[in-house]
Design goal:
The protein is 40% helix and 17% strand. It is an alpha/beta fold. The protein has a 9-stranded mixed beta sheet, with helices on both faces. The chain starts with a helix and ends with a helix.
Length: 356
């Protein structure tokens, strides 16, 4: 690239980062906690006794019953040398093996109540479905990737290893799993689910990307990654190196989409245009005009950009003749109310993949 072209690319990347920084600074408002159903007793001692370690020594440290029929697990990750919290809702019939659905939180890693159990109805929605629902907590700003270097602020990030080879064997042994898995994620994690499918073919039979942008190595994709990581005070260079490092393209699922063949794929996005949940009576707004403005402005522009990402992916997969389901909502912002609907709508595809 010529010096003039390189300078133009740097200026363009800087402008796009500034736009994203402004949007992310406005912030998105979490929904209020979903209504709780009576706690269901869980046989935690039996679960703990059944759990077996992963081949690299990762293992279950502890388990405790929680509300809404959930169980909070503490799992030691050998790759990250730390104990991580994993929230699960076991399948209703413990006598029958069940597949697992992993639900990844967004850029916050589930902090500040911004997670699947507190912002959606999954406790009730999956109550009668024979599937173990698994929500790993943590990973803020990590893209759930294996970082090339430990970060001074975010620490050792080896999430791909944890989610593909450490956690699944622990879950399957503890919860009578079938070995069949699916994974879905929102926003940042809507990018990560594709990278996980590339990193460990066959571990996840189905992936769901709700308001995620799969491209990570082009100008826009790098700007997204940089802003998410920087928002949590991490250094993107510790993730995949400087912008011209081959690791950026190596981890771009858009460029390696051929490797997704055989995986059931569901992608959803709104347009950023205010929809039925974007009003003072909408989920999480609670009549607060400030919250609504944040959702409309930040969530609106972000979703409009991501809509373009999804359409590019649709064209890419179409060229490769790789089957995928795309749901383009005519309205809707980057917010939890729509992601709950996306999960409901994508469940039949995931259920079929898990039980085939």
């Amino acid at each position: 690239m010529s010096r003039r072209g390189h300078s133009f690319a740097q200026r363009s990347r800087a402008k796009f980062r500034l736009l994203l920084a402004t949007l992310l600074t406005v912030g998105l408002t979490p929904l209020s906690a979903a209504g709780a159903d009576p706690a269901v007793p869980a046989d935690v001692p039996t679960l703990a006794a059944a759990a077996r370690p992963a081949p690299n020594g990762s293992h279950l440290v502890g388990a405790a019953s929680a509300a809404d029929g959930m169980i909070d697990l503490q799992v030691y990750s050998a790759a990250m040398d730390s104990v991580l919290t994993v929230k699960v809702r076991p399948a209703p019939d413990n006598s029958r093996p069940a597949p697992a659905l992993y639900l990844l939180n967004g850029a916050s890693g589930g902090s500040d109540a911004s997670n699947w159990f507190e912002q959606t109805d999954i406790a009730g929605f999956f109550r009668d479905k024979q599937v173990n629902v698994v929500v790993p907590m943590g990973g803020n700003g990590s893209y759930f990737a294996d970082w090339r270097a430990d970060d001074p602020v975010l620490g050792k990030q080896r999430w791909t290893t944890f989610l593909t080879s450490e956690l699944p064997p622990v879950i399957d042994s503890a919860l009578n799993g079938t070995g069949a898995n699916a994974v879905a994620g929102i926003s940042m994690a809507g990018t990560s689910v594709f990278q996980l499918a590339l990193a460990a073919p066959g571990v996840y039979r189905a992936i769901g990307s709700y308001s995620g942008c799969v491209q990570t190595s082009d100008l826009q994709g790098q700007a997204f990654v940089d802003l998410v990581v920087l928002r949590w005070r991490g250094n993107p260079v510790n993730l995949w190196g400087p912008p011209n490092d081959p690791a950026w393209t190596d981890n771009d699922a858009f460029l390696h989409a051929e490797q997704l063949r055989g995986t059931a794929i569901y992608v959803s996005t709104g347009t950023g245009v205010p929809g039925p949940l974007d009003n003072l009576a909408g989920p999480g707004i609670q009549g607060n005009p400030g919250k609504l403005i944040g959702q409309l402005v930040s969530g609106g522009v972000l979703e409009a950009i991501i809509n373009g990402c999804a359409r590019s992916l649709q064209a890419r997969l179409g060229q490769l003749e790789i089957p995928a389901t795309f749901s383009f909502r005519p309205t809707g912002t980057h917010s939890w109310g729509y992601w709950q609907e996306d999960l409901h709508d994508s469940w039949p595809l995931m259920e079929e993949a898990l039980n085939r």
